[in-house]
## 1
Amino acid sequence: MANPNQEIKYTQLFINNEFVDSVNKKTFVTSNPANGKKLADVAEGDKADVDLAVEAAKKAFARGSEWRNLDASARGKLLHKLADLIDRDSDIIASIESLDNGKPFIMAKADINFSSTVLRYYAGYADKVHGRTVPSDGNLFSYIRKEPVGVVGQIIPWNFPVLMLSWKWAPALAAGCTLVIKPAEQTPLTALYVASLSKEAGFPDGVINVITGYGPTAGAAIASHSDIRKVAFTGSTEVGKIIMEIAAKSNLKKVSLELGGKSPLVIFDDVNLDEVVQLAQDAIFINSGQICTGASRTFVQEGIYDEFVKRTVENAKTRKIGCPFNTDTLQGPQVDQDTFDKILNYIDYGKEDGAKLEIGGKRWGNEGFFIEPTVFSNVTDDMRIAQDEIFGPVQSILKFKTIDEVIERANKTNYGLAAGIFTNNIENALTFANEVEAGSVWVNCYNVFRSQVPFGGYKQSGIGSELGEEGINLYLETKAVSIKLPNKN
């Protein structure tokens, strides 16, 4: 059950299975974006705290440690136990998520449920990380081992706090790594709560560590730490480039990045508009538009363009915006003032560049960071709203004629995270899916994520894929062993 008055229990750093103050005793404020009011003072970690966390993680990963001596199946059982506890406390976690992030409670609850599903998926993978023997030339017996990378650093965003935590924790722990994670400074509270559950589940000291703080201090300390062997980051392309540079200059640690997007959704004239208008709007407006795969370029074939725009505007009028704890709310606030201001600036750019503002474009209400669902038509490829990632509830509708044309235009971007197509023509669907430059392609659906299916981006949308088998491979080293034998047999 949703609780808008949910108690905030955990605001300290989580190091070596204990909640502790930061070394410098500093704190920062995390606020409710629905009303701007303070939720809690949270410990502000920096390099000194990251050093302590890494030391705890190193000790937990040391040869002969409790964690290293656990059977792989036992790691799986711990992940199942953590998933059980998340399910038990899902209402509490979802309430905290809604308070700290602003997303509607019903959507936060769905995120929490998916998070436990991801943990269970990788729990099953823990004892299925298989090596293999290799029939090498000569009198040799050769085999391949898959081994955990070691201590890993993880930095997650504010738009899906618990979900992104599960995408990072689950494969790393299943592989046998230990970790230091930094949640976004805008949304630190649920990571700390789940950390408390990891202790209750029975994870050994030092395996999981949570450092709350800011990117330029705590985040940079994780990316540059010489004892961290791999860093995983989800966030903007701009910051991803910085992290990759820092990682390279420190100890050339492994890097996986899930970054920005400017995803195309292509709608052909053979679709049922009664269904597709709603699906296309959900594809960009979900999570207040704060989703990296959002269909921020909606390409509509010219024969249905005007009717599609008309119906889209009517649909936007009915989209319920308001308190995240109301059961009928579909859209909550943007996460903070900076995000709010950026989106409104891009709405101004759209008008300046000649797009037609069909609906929305303004602040909603008189408190918090709410923005009206916004729809632009007559958008062209050269406009800023068609090129840059806005990360808000702004739908840009572009017109196209042919499949060859729209594929060329869809690919004319530095991003390549996701793409979608709505059509009843299987030839068009397959041609688009095969030729669009994107890590995820959805046909007659959108924003469909499953634990078993890898997710990652092309071009400047990232490096590596999370979820599925690819997700656990991010946290594994490959070792080849060859033994000389007296004869081939």
## 2
Amino acid sequence: MPEVKSMFREVLPKQGQLSMEDVPTMVLCKPKLMPLKSVTLEKLEKMQLEAQEAIKQQDLALKEPQ
């Protein structure tokens, strides 16, 4: 890529303090703990277990009179 000449030239102080504007950088934050199972999945599993229990009870109720 060709170098573009600027109409401004860089000036650095010979003595004193040199300051620079802060450049935004990425900051790492604490990892967030995610549940292994979502609330919806837990509800579905609970509903499935309840349905299986109900089917077992119905089967046992049908077998008892015989």
